[in-house]
């Protein structure tokens, strides 16, 4: 099964008066679609756009793996004890919320911030919180997410280059910039903000149209 979600079809959220603009791929907050709650362990994929000075005040989470990828600008992350970390394009930020954690996020810079934040449900609830930033993850280097059967792949492709989609029970791919065309499909290419959900897809390749950056989740596990 192959399902495409276009950028323009995402749920819109955020607060324009506070400088926040969010594009949701799954049911989130006031946006509820019983047929679009999660895909495997992936339960949120939010494109966040924060104006300079805007952000999200400290708030609690539990039993989630939260992964953030900055596309433009700098993301300042603050933990419950006031420690701050700056996450830049090319870094992978991972917050394991465990049995409970508080954190905040903001754009402390002078330029607009745009980042993708993804929530995954761990295999087992509870446990101690963990925080990690992998700086400048290399193209093609898989990042295995602890406590889940999920692996993140980053692909940076030149015009015309091809890459294989992982052969996994489920794959979720999000185009960060540029465009990709699916091998063997005549449909329009997927462009920035578009996403693909693939179930038991087997061998599939995509071809870049222009300089392209692509995130792909290889999702295992049962159910959903």
Strands, helices and their partners?
Blueprint: E1 2-5, E2 11-15, E3 20-24, E4 42-50, E5 55-61, E6 65-72, E7 75-79, E8 84-87, E9 92-96, E10 101-106, E11 113-120, E12 130-134, E13 143-145, E14 150-157, E15 162-165, E16 170-177, E17 179-182, E18 190-191, E19 195-199, E20 204-208, E21 212-219
Antiparallel strand pairs: 1-19, 2-3, 3-4, 4-11, 5-10, 6-9, 6-11, 7-8, 7-10, 9-12, 13-14, 14-21, 15-20, 16-19, 16-21, 17-18, 17-20
Highlighted features:
mainly beta; 53% strand; 224 residues; seven-stranded antiparallel β-sheet
Report on this structure.
With 224 residues, the protein is mostly beta strands. It is built from no helices and 21 strands. Strand 13 and strand 14 form a beta hairpin.
Helix content: under 10%
Largest sheet: 7 strands, antiparallel
State the secondary-structure class. mainly beta
Summed up, the helix count is 0
The strand count comes to 21
Question: What percent of residues are in strands?
Answer: over 45%
Question: Quaternary status of these chains?
Answer: single chain
Our Rg estimate from Cα atoms comes to 17 Å
User: Which strand order spans the largest sheet, edge to edge or round the barrel?
Assistant: 2-3-4-11-6-9-12
Low-confidence parts? none
Distance between the termini: 13 Å
What is the H-and-E element order? EEEEEEEEEEEEEEEEEEEEE
Shape: globular
> How much is the average pLDDT?
93
